[in-house]
Amino acid sequence: MGIALMTVFAAKAQNPAISAIYTPDPAPYVHGDKVYLFVDHDEDDAVYFKMKDWLVFSTEDMVNWTYLGAPVSTETFAWAKQGDRAWAAQAVEHKGKWYWYLCCNTADGKDALCVAVADNPQGPWKDAIGKPLATGFGFIDPTVFIDDDGTPYLFWGNKGFWYGKLNDDMISFADGYKEVPGYTDPKSFGALQSKMDWSIGRNREMTQYEEGPWVTKQNGMYYAVYPAGGVPEYMAYSTAPTVNGPWTFRGRIMNEAENSFTIHGGNITFKGHNYMFYHNGALPNGGGFRRSTAIEEFKFNNDGTIPFIPFTKEGVKPVGKLDPTKRVEAETMASSWGVKLDRKGGKDHYVTSVHNGDWIKLRNVDFGEGNATAVSATIGQLKNAGSIEFFIDKLDGSSFAKIDFGKANETKEGRITGRDKPKGTHDVYILFRGGDEELFDLDWWNCLQY
Known about the structure:
The protein is mainly beta. The protein has helices at 3-12, 186-189, and strands at 27-31, 34-39, 53-59, 65-73, 87-94, 97-105, 111-118, 126-127, 134-135, 143-146, 152-156, 162-165, 178-179, 193-197, 202-206, 214-218, 221-228, 234-240, 248-254, 266-270, 273-280, 292-298, 328-329, 332-333, 335-337, 340-341, 351-352, 359-366, 374-382, 386-392, 401-405, 411-415, 425-434, 440-448. Strand 10 (143-146) and strand 11 (152-156) form a beta hairpin.
């Protein structure tokens, strides 16, 4: 693909929000001045659900997302079926610990809920209980909700909807679990329709609720957002005056996702803005088994209802600025073309699979009064010599800095000339140049002031 066509892709598409790796079933979590995003991972060559691990990202501005690694996989759970079925999950912080509620299969093929625990989102994570939290047909897609009084609850289910109050340890149920009240009632979860019930191997009449619940609370009202309507799914929601119901079906809030027969996500409030996360198949080579996180901003109606939320290519606007004089991880980006992310746990990550013509874009980069005199960058593994060029706002035209690399684990600088000095707030493109083979891994960069 030529630079001109790639520039069109870059300029018009903030959705999907992450383009270097597939990121289905987004589960955002606000913690202080950051949003952490916990996602599953569709493999690049998937032709069915092919999912081995879970990933973490973070942002402070809603547009530039930093990859924090793949700290949990099916290997985290010794009792689980290995190498597949790493499906939807959600994580929260509670009393200084992080709890990640996930779903996978047991070694003998049963649907299972599991929980991992860590001191921070990057881990290390470990199996919290050494066994499933619960098993049962359709026991997938857990969502965790902590009420105003500190009481935690877990909701989950596909073609069934269950919940239970968790103990304060976050890894056991206080008094078991049960079906969500009203699950079979059209007044609670929408009109009956014929759907396949895989537990009995035939169709039966079921409410609109399908799977993937997301439970929140707003001004004393409880909200359950969920994929609905069978396949393909749309997004709907119900509300209740208490966590135990009674639930009232409120209708459709998103249509069927682009190029995906599933839709899954949830909403958060961050820096005074409300956001709805979901996934679609809109990335190049994307589809129903290669899905990506997308985000839309919305406002609650005056009566507390959620409006219909249309899909956009533009996505959301930045709510902060990126300071280029601080270390900027290479894996921090608003969008990209060609490059990939490592598949590691831990805290050290990088951009890999870099080829000639690949690029990274960052949004809302604040150069201040234009005092930067050079750009410094560090690479890791080198396979072939190459260079990186830095551009303002678009990929064509002249770059404001260039750095050539010919050795592994090298840190080098590229001077910024007076004529090309960036000033004020701009988008930045990092363009990779070289031969036909893979070039190097990029670790981080920043602007220098001498």
